Amino acid sequence: MNDQPKQVHCDIHGPQDETFVCQHIVQGLSENQPYGFWWAEDSDQARPDAVCTACNELVALKGGEWTQEMLEFASVKLLCGACYDRAKELNLGPI
Question: In sequence order, which residues have a C-beta less than 8 Å from that of residue 84 and are 6 or more positions away?
Fold first, then answer.
């Protein structure tokens, strides 16, 4: 089994590892505004899927379940690894 992330082409950063985040983190990048950055602590991925504070709180209210409502609210988006790193730093400070 290949655990290596798939590659995507970013118009800014070129070939990069693919990552997945909620739409609010992507929105925060375009606005240069932090919305929070949460991921599963038990993940062994270098760049685990991440969600903003609002999405994280909604999942907690749903008992940790990703309901259809949660999936629609999060509207998960693809980011390149470098954009992911930029979003993480925007929300958490220097990596």
Answer: 19, 21, 47, 50
**Ramachandran quadrant class, 64 (left: phi over 0; alpha: psi -120 to 50; beta: rest):** left
Do residues 76 and 7 touch, judged by C-beta distance below 8 A?
no
User: Going along 7-47, which residue ranges are E strands?
Assistant: 7-10, 14-21, 38-39
pLDDT digits (tens, 9 = 90+) for 1-53: 456 779 999 999 999 999 999 999 999 999 999 999 999 989 999 999 999 99
**CB-based contacts of 90, cutoff 8 Å, min separation 6:** 28, 29, 32, 33, 34
Q: What is the pLDDT of residue 68?
A: 93
